[in-house]
Design brief:
The protein contains 3 helices and 13 strands. With 216 residues, the chain is of the alpha+beta class. It folds into 2 domains: 46 residues; 150 residues, Glucose Permease (Domain IIA) (Distorted Sandwich), CATH 2.70.70. Helix 1 packs antiparallel against helix 2. The chain is elongated and about 70 Å long.
């Protein structure tokens, strides 16, 4: 299984602690230490599971928008987004829990023309006001059929957003563009002319599930 490079140090530390506890338990022949070592092994396996980075394939095209994140669709709304979209836009919000794949992917191909970091709070990422108040990174893409923006939003537990994107980069649909550690949310902003293909409660798969179609 492939793992995100940003998580390798966490995987190594968790595995080393679990292995060290097993060695101490073996040396002291202590059942409480054996139990602790077992619990630490479960945690180490979860850390590795959290940072998994599977390959993804699916439908591609200039007129389709694929999910940038695994998780649950929690909001679909018409909102104001003046910074990049230039006014009203359709927002699809995908909440990632601690068991979701946390590698994020480009929803559309095009030129990266906008990258903006905003510091902020660490509220529950599933709630509406986290879109305005939480720490976040926005990446705007000029696609063949209009502007599309994705926004990585830190959550209640998440404390670091990682974004590879820089202004001037070329976004390739489905490619990896970043990661958020330990529970978070990704918003996708679409033109109002776009047709949303998911509904609240759906569980899209990053890089695979088509969440919208753009007007040609």
């Amino acid at each position: 299984m492939r793992f995100a490079s940003e998580g390798l140090v966490f995987i190594f530390i968790a595995a080393a602690i679990a292995a060290g506890t097993f060695m101490v338990a073996l040396n002291r022949r202590s059942w409480p230490l054996w139990l602790l070592a077992f619990l630490l092994t479960i945690i180490a396996l979860w850390v590795a599971y959290f940072f998994r980075d599977p390959e993804r394939t699916g439908q591609r095209g200039d007129d389709v928008v694929v999910a940038p994140a695994d998780g649950k669709v929690v909001l679909i709304q018409e909102v104001d987004e003046p910074a990049f979209m230039g006014g009203r836009a359709r927002r699809v919000s995908i909440f990632m829990n601690v068991f979701s794949v946390h590698v994020n992917r480009y929803p559309i191909s095009g030129a990266v023309t906008y990258v903006k970091y905003n510091p902020g709070k660490f509220l529950n990422a599933a709630v509406e006001k986290s879109s305005l108040e939480n720490e976040q990174m926005s990446v705007g893409i000029e696609s063949a059929h209009g502007r599309v923006m994705m926004r990585q939003i830190a959550g209640l537990i998440a404390r670091r957003i990682i974004t590879y994107s820089k202004v001037g980069d070329t976004a390739h649909q489905g490619d990896r563009m970043g990661l958020i550690r330990f529970g978070s949310r990704v918003d996708v902003f679409l033109p109002l002319s776009a047709t949303v293909k998911v509904k609240i409660g759906d569980f899209p798969v990053a890089g695979t599930t088509v969440i919208a179609e753009l007007a040609k």
